[in-house]
């Protein structure tokens, strides 16, 4: 019985993570937008829903006692709006700016959660968040299973909606923009608009995940939303395979199992005073895992061809770096970006032989040209 | 109103600026934003701290330079730390970034740098625990310099060191062949290669300079405040903001951006409240991105 209750609890947590990962998959897997502030968007959702649905509290703002479902919808709207604003500010610029800005959003959200005591309860967090099936709290098994059922239902709805959406014309435009921006734009698709939409949608799903989790734990505090959360979700998506909704689900279950398992191992084996250190080592292991996967199998378990990050077919955005600098550091001459048709290859070769070498014999071992005068 | 915030801002601005030079060089020459840069900072500081304690264990107590809180061990250790951090950056490039760059997707490199950042930071936490450490626990008496401003000898020394380093990097970038090559690569990589610039060498130089400066910035924080595994990660947003405000690729821009952000942060501490300090860099970043995304001294991408 205990084991089933724990299993249900474990699955519920993992499913909340998979909801966040699904949101990230819209942004990164489908559209190729790099979000390093996931924790921020999750926190926005959690706090929005918590403030709207908790009973009145004289100590702070909010406490409107709304129904849970309204809180969830509001969480989606707020997180989506913040994501849209972030996207509007940065998506006309270089791709890295979005990463830096989302990173900043997460920092600021953390700061507000910690310091705006009247709004967020500060470091003490927000308690008394209404839980669905609160009446069952006396019977842990039933309570956990009921929670699992409702979280699973939310995940299923979002999952099916996203699968449909990525196969829809809208999703195809996103993939087209990811694969070949110029071609898509020449068909009259507004790249920036579509990217902002995708970023907002992903942010809304993350916000929903935060709200769902808040109502399932019943209490939120700023330290739930540290950069480690962002990092875990990234590993989940990359392990599962970016671009694939199934991959997002499986990856988050797998990585959460590894994480929870190694955490349990640490707390069982390591003496209490050393546990903080061992927990740090856990993050090191996951970080190394992320880097190794990026190096060895960038497609993850389920990433198909053409998934974001799935090998050199996809060009970097917004300006295709591979095209601008066919010989960027380390890029071999045979890289697909530089390959081109036989005719283009000939055109590229001719100047090397004729014009700028002016008929001088090539120095041995200096295929790269003269070093400098 | 006290003008003390100007000195505080100048100091934290110097640290941010030194770090931002590395960020801006990595961005303009290697073309990716390196989220691990802050952790180079922390690693360099801990390396310096380790060497200082090692020297202390071997030689015994060394008297500090008269008004300062540190003596020659710190100077030696700083040099060792700078070399170590530069080599660390080179090693990480060889193991991770260079291989991913070869695949031609810069955003994947950004992601890898984020993973590496998390791993490096947690490894520091594992090795040294998250308790803060100090170079010196001695308390310095601040001397009044007029207008209600006070400054300690350590602060003057570190500001002077920053000025020397910034001038050095600026001269390197504008007066030497190596600097010309670095600027050429940042402007047009292919053309630079065609005229015979050894790009691999430029890349190595970039990592060495960026790492060494990150180490100095970290040690400055360590001397003035404290050493923590998180110190570099906390500096990341101010450093990025400074690099973007100054204009990506511009060394003087990064330093001026750092000073602007440092002084604004210090002013925010005085006028709004210390708890909102970290938001200042973000507000400036958003303002720059909305109104002048190429920054103060940036050039439009060709």
TrEMBL record, chain A:
What is the recorded membrane topology of this protein?
Multi-pass membrane protein
Q: Does the keyword Membrane apply?
A: yes
Q: Where in the cell is it found?
A: Cell membrane
Q: What GO molecular function annotations does the UniProt record carry, in alphabetical order?
A: branched-chain amino acid transmembrane transporter activity
Q: Kindly state which keywords UniProt assigns to this record, in alphabetical order.
A: Cell membrane, Membrane, Transmembrane, Transmembrane helix
What are the boundaries of the region Disordered? 305-373
Q: Name one GO cellular component term.
A: plasma membrane
Question: Any stretches that span the bilayer, and where are they?
Answer: 6-26, 33-54, 66-85, 97-116, 141-163, 198-219, 276-296
Record InterPro entries: ABC_transp_permease (IPR001851), LivM-like (IPR043428)
This chain belongs to which protein, by name? Answer: Branched-chain amino acid ABC transporter permease
Compositionally biased intervals (Low complexity): 332-341
- A Pfam family annotated for this chain is BPD_transp_2
The protein's superkingdom reads Bacteria
Chief subcellular site?
membrane
TrEMBL record, chain B:
Q: What GO cellular component term, any one, is given? A: plasma membrane
Pfam families in UniProt: BPD_transp_2
Principal location listed in the UniProt entry: membrane
What topology does it adopt in the membrane?
Multi-pass membrane protein
Q: Which UniProt keywords apply?
A: Amino-acid transport, Cell inner membrane, Cell membrane, Membrane, Transmembrane, Transmembrane helix, Transport
Q: Name one molecular function that GO assigns to this entry.
A: L-leucine transmembrane transporter activity
Transmembrane ranges, per UniProt, are 6-28, 40-59, 71-92, 104-124, 156-173, 205-227, 239-264, 276-299
Q: Where in the cell is it found?
A: Cell membrane
**Record GO biological process:** D-alanine transmembrane transport; L-alanine transport; L-isoleucine import across plasma membrane
Entry-linked InterPro entries: ABC_transp_permease, BCAA_transport_permease
Query: Belongs to which family?
Result: Belongs to the binding-protein-dependent transport system permease family. LivHM subfamily.
**What is the name of this protein?**
Branched-chain amino acid ABC transporter permease
Q: Which species is listed as the source?
A: Segnochrobactrum spirostomi
Please spell out the taxonomic lineage of the organism that makes this protein. Answer: Bacteria, Pseudomonadati, Pseudomonadota, Alphaproteobacteria, Hyphomicrobiales
